[in-house]
Amino acid sequence: MWIFTKHGFISIVQHNSIADHFQVKSREPGPLKKLWPEHEIEVIEWADYRYRVTIPKNEVVPVLVGVIEDILYTSFKNECVRDSKYHNVLTRIWSLMYNYQKNVLASPLARDRIWFHED
C-alpha cells in the first residue's frame, strides 16, 4: 500500500518471511524516522526503496491511525508546501490521478466502474 503523509511517502507490504510484521519502505529516511523513531532503518543501496524498517503489525496500525486523526488541514498538497520537492511530486501525482479520473469517466465502460448511477 502506498501512503502519502505530510511527513513523506511510504510503502507498506507484508514482510516476506515474518508473518506478523510489515516492511515499511521509503525513498528517503525522513518519514520512517518521524513515524517510527524507535526502529532502526535498514539501508539497501541497490533497492528501489532504499530505506526500510521491519515492524510488528500491531505497532504500525496505531501510528497510521494517529496520522489520520491528526489531520487538521483542508488541502493535503498545501499542507506539504514547505518541502518544495515533495510538494512538486504530490502535484504531479494529483495531476496524473485527475487525468485518470477523466479517462475513466470518458470510457465506454465507465458506467460499469462507477458505483452510482445518474438519473
Entry summary:
The chain is an alpha+beta fold. Helix content is about 40%, strand content about 20%.
Describe what this molecule looks like in 3D.
There is one protein chain. With 119 residues, this protein is α+β, with helices and mostly antiparallel strands. It has two domains: 1-71, no CATH class; 73-119, no CATH class. It contains five helices and five strands. The chain has helices at residues 30-35, 57-69, 76-79, 84-106, 110-113, and strands at residues 2-5, 8-14, 21-26, 42-43, 51-56. The chain has a five-stranded antiparallel β-sheet. The longest helix is centred in the last third of the chain and has 23 residues, at 84-106. The radius of gyration is 17 Å and the shape is globular. It starts with a strand and ends in a 6-residue tail after the last helix. The mean pLDDT is 91.
